[in-house]
C-alpha cells in the first residue's frame, strides 16, 4: 500500500496538494470575476469577449469589412473578393485589426495582391485593391436592403 492510499486503494491528496489546488481555484475565480467586472477583450480568457457578451440593438446598423479588386480582365470595375486565407493568405480579422496601419500606408494592400497571385496563379492579376466597410441598416433585426459603403484604403499596382 502506498503512503497516500487509503484502505480502499484510492489515492488521497496530501494537505499541501489540497491547499495548492484550492489556491488555484481561488486565484482563477478572482481573475474571472475581475475580468467580468472591469476587464475587456485584452484580458481574455479572463473576461468575456465583447462580441459574445453584448447584443446589437434591434434597430440600427451592422458593419462588415471586405475587399474589392480591379482585375486585368476588367480594369475599370471594382468587384468584391473573398477575404479568406485561401484567397489572400490571411483572415478577415487580421485585416480588420490592421486597418489603422493600412490607412496610414495603403501600399500594405499590395501584399494581399501578391499573396493572391501566389495562391491563385490562374486568376486574373489584381491591378487595384481597396478595403471597404459596409454599413448594413437593420430595422427590427431585419436588414432593410440599405447599405452604405465607405472606402477605408485603396492601393493600385505600380
UniProtKB/TrEMBL annotation:
Lineage: superkingdom: Bacteria
Sorted UniProt keywords: Membrane, Transmembrane, Transmembrane helix
TM annotation in the entry: 20-40
Species the sequence originates in: Knoellia sinensis KCTC 19936
Name by which UniProt lists this protein: Uncharacterized protein
Amino acid at each position: 500500500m502506498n503512503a497516500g492510499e487509503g484502505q480502499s486503494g484510492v489515492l488521497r491528496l496530501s494537505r499541501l496538494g489540497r491547499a495548492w489546488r484550492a489556491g488555484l481555484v481561488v486565484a482563477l475565480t478572482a481573475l474571472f470575476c475581475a475580468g467580468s467586472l472591469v476587464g475587456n477583450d485584452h484580458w481574455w480568457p479572463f473576461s468575456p469577449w465583447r462580441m459574445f457578451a453584448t447584443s446589437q440593438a434591434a434597430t440600427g446598423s451592422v458593419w462588415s469589412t471586405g475587399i474589392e479588386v480591379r482585375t486585368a480582365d476588367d480594369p475599370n470595375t471594382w468587384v468584391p473578393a473573398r477575404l479568406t486565407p485561401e484567397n489572400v493568405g490571411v483572415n478577415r480579422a487580421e485585416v480588420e485589426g490592421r486597418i489603422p496601419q493600412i490607412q496610414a500606408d495603403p501600399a500594405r494592400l499590395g501584399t494581399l495582391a501578391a499573396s493572391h497571385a501566389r495562391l491563385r496563379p490562374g486568376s486574373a492579376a489584381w491591378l487595384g485593391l481597396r478595403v471597404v466597410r459596409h454599413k448594413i441598416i437593420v430595422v427590427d433585426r431585419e436588414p432593410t436592403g440599405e447599405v452604405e459603403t465607405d472606402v477605408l484604403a485603396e492601393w493600385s499596382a505600380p
